[in-house]
Prior knowledge:
The structure holds two protein chains of two kinds. By secondary structure, chain A is α+β, with helices and mostly antiparallel strands. The radius of gyration of chain A is 27 Å and the shape is globular. Chain A has a domain at 207-384: Phosphoribosyl-aminoimidazole Synthetase, Chain A, domain 2 (Alpha-Beta Complex). Helix content of chain A is 36%, strand content 23%. Chain A has 26 helices and 28 strands. By secondary structure, chain B is α/β, with parallel strands linked by helices. Chain B has helices at residues 14-23, 66-76, 86-93, 150-158, 210-223, and strands at 2-7, 27-32, 43-46, 81-84, 100-102, 110-118, 134-141, 145-147, 162-166, 178-182, 188-191. In chain B, the strands form two sheets. Chain B has a nine-stranded mixed beta sheet with strand order 2-1-3-4-11-10-9-6-7, with helices on both faces. The longest helix of chain B has 14 residues, at 210-223. At the A-B interface, helix 9 and helix 10 of A face helix 1 and strand 6 of B. Chain B: Keywords: ATP-binding, Cytoplasm, Glutamine amidotransferase, Hydrolase, Ligase, Nucleotide-binding, Purine biosynthesis. Chain B: It is found in: Cytoplasm. Chain B: Pathway: Purine metabolism; IMP biosynthesis via de novo pathway; 5-amino-1-(5-phospho-D-ribosyl)imidazole from N(2)-formyl-N(1)-(5-phospho-D-ribosyl)glycinamide: step 1/2. Chain B: This is Phosphoribosylformylglycinamidine synthase subunit PurQ.
Amino acid sequence: MSIDTVKNAEATPDQEQPYKELGLKDDEYARIKEILQRRPTDAELAMYSVMWSEHCSYKSSKVHLKYFGDTTTDEMRAKMLAGIGENAGVVDIGDGWAVTFKAESHNHPSYVEPYQGAATGVGGIVRDILAMGARPLAVMDPLRFGKPDAEDTKRVLPGIVAGVGGYGNCLGLPNIGGEVVFDESYQGNPLVNALCVGAMRVEDLHLAHASGTGNKVILYGARTGLDGIGGVSVLASETFDDSAGKRKKLPSVQVGDPFTEKVLIECSLELFEKGIVVGIQDLGGAGLSCATSELASAGDGGMHVWLDRVPLRAKNMTPAEILSSESQERMCAVVEPANVEAFMEVCRKWDVIATEIGEVTDGDRLVITYHDEVVVDVPPRTVAHEGPVYHRPIQRPADQDELQANTPDSLERPENVLELIKIMAASPNLASKKWVTQQYDRYVRGGTVLAQPSDGGMIRIDEETGRGVALSTDCNGRYTKLDPYEGAKLALAEAYRNVAATGATPVAVTNCLNFGSPEDPGVMWQFEQAVKGLADGCAELGIPVTGGNVSFYNQTGTTAILPTPVVGVLGVIDDVRRRIPTGIGAEAGETLLLLGETRDEFGGSEWAHHVHGHLGGLPPKVDLQREKLLGQVLVAGSRDGMVSAAHDLSEGGLAQTLVETCLIGEVGARVFLQGDLFTELFSESAGRVLVAVPRTEEQRFTDMCTARRLPWRKVGVVDPGSKALEIQGLGELPLDELREAWEGTLPALFD
Amino acid sequence: MRVGVITFPGTLDDVDAQRAVRYADGEAVPLWHGDHDLKGVDAVIVPGGFSYGDYLRCGAIARFAPVMQEVIEAAHKGMPVLGICNGFQILAEAHLLPGALVRNHKLHFVCRDQWLAVENNTTPWTTRYDKGAEILVPLKSGEGGYQADQKTLDELEGENRVVFRYVGENPNGSRNNIAGITNARGNVVGLMPHPEHAIDALTGPTDDGLGMFLSLLDAVQVKA
């Protein structure tokens, strides 16, 4: 086989290259030539094309994401140990602990190959957390699918759920929450977002730097193969008509092996513990192209990599393929020469393949050789950090006004409100997600304090002190469609509220921004608005965005998905023993209080969607100062033992919250409401939480709410003797009937 | 009380088993799959997880690990051995317990809080329970269906060697609703559900599982 070397590239300046097939535009290709002062080699072209892709370079989103940094004050940054730009954000949570968390999308691969796409989505985000020096502790998976009864949903959902479970369960990471949402717009574009949280001692934080001339670059973990090469295969298609016949094409979706990853995690943690790692980087999207260029770019020197040393699992791989392969379960470490043997010793203990593939040099170039021929010679920053930046056209969609004018006011409201409670509880978006979550291990490692179906997941970090963290991810794409700015704030508000409802104090934010094509000015407007809304919201709440992920091109033809900026909020609790559970009935004699205010708000509501197939009007109003106050009251309630259960109100309104608190607690309740019962029960006004307080604490708690000017209303009592949810003026719903409605939907669809 | 907890590559619930031993005032002694001795422990726990990635068949590779040769020998001499989930599968593959664990009948991995009936409270792992007591512990497995031929089942039932039985709907297709069994001598117990995840109501559904580790404490002290 002939290899395209730098020498060859210099000698053949006019050779045509398939840069368009690799996704590069004319001007991008011209810029590469300008940087290199020659045409790129095949390997260089592969590196630039993948690193300058939307996925790796954030070229369409960068100018907007900058706003997160601009709106983060020093005060908000005070607890941040690492932020945007690192593999994952890191937050100081006290007691000497640092917690790192991040979400990432794996949407497109999961549509093509649901099981492996979802599995490797989990694997990738877990390695990001590991690369910060932390032990991964838990995962969460916000998932979105098309219509629940569509054929394609029946294809992708079971595979995606099995993939998330198959990989995460085998890694030994509890799955503590997430979302399952159905909407027609995700048909052909399911969203598979994965979040991982990990912890380490503050002093153990590792950043991806390749500092120190002479330090060795070690690739360890799985061998490199032809899986996940994707577009780069066009470079090889002609070169490989050798005597052995055409090489079998491998799937463009990567194939994961969670066992290898589990061993890689334990091996890496032992290496960190021994203090013999200078810099570390995981291999994810863009594989070695990304790892080597990012490590070199972030360090203070250059790097030389001997590509022929990379252990392969396929024959005759070209340098371009080796550099682009997205084979899973690989890490790259920078190690001082004196520690290489100790490093190898640990890898041998864990049966992990480790190979010295390169060295940090004192130049400022990334030089990659293949059997002594130079195939890459580039300034690493131009690959990793100085990719193209686009100012895409932005245009508020012409039909946005029409959409907002089409309010739900004219929709027919039900006569039988009691019956509607059951109908809504059985609707796919509100129905119990047990069919999904019982395929996930939530117990492993013994630190899970709260998991689905609680509002947020909570894990214990410190077994001595009980310090822990809570997490929630949320987004209502319908709200965001109606008003992307307010919708993003609403997503933030709900995640914040969910964390507060567990008794934890929200401290940091991550995001996973799923949108349609950035080449559509209307989508870019949604994106810009959502970023602004989220950033402004975070500034108002005083908690920083520590990292995030952007996924564009989620659309079928010209129809984009609902704009879906999934927001993850991390909270800290000093002692997990004071967490607030979701189910009522833990204490004898509880009063149900509704905190917050209910308005007639049905724009984008689950009722309008499920009953009328309607989307229009404006989303509920969001008041972040109110959310903050609500959070403070809940944390105070938890700290002083005044609250025995709490559940936030969101999609489906108070009715759904009541159904869930009763069914989770396995106990009945008597509820008395005033005003229009339909609005009281189904409005989706933000800033509300239903709490159960022991009767002995009722006075103290309501006094506190009044003193802090948080509106509250007594709406009912828990009735331990009853097996029904009774709404005064409407009638009774037996819990077993409600359970059948709530839990029956998903099994009927997917079993 | 010193209790060895084995870690194979791919073992996941070793930290939980160690914690459960500590909750019962025992000393947890980590044992590595490549170890050739049991470090003088009084009992051994083979914890859950996916040893060697569950390649080939659950537990099929782990049974050949050096440390398992020591466990097999010690078990034959009467040392209390507990296999949980993947540990049960390994003990079955090692022929310390009869039968096999196969794919759940509904084919999905199942993680749920499971009621179990204690059928045999005479093993070193179950004396703290009343016979017939019902306990609630997590079950989380994809291949937890207990299978054995009729003769073996008759033997197990006839000799009171079914230790735990699922209560209510059978979660995985196990024959005779069997969740856990013991060997003829009664010192080796294997079960699919996870008592080590039910030692504190804060992190598990109950603390019903702690009884197994406290039972061992009694057994070891009586022997001493």
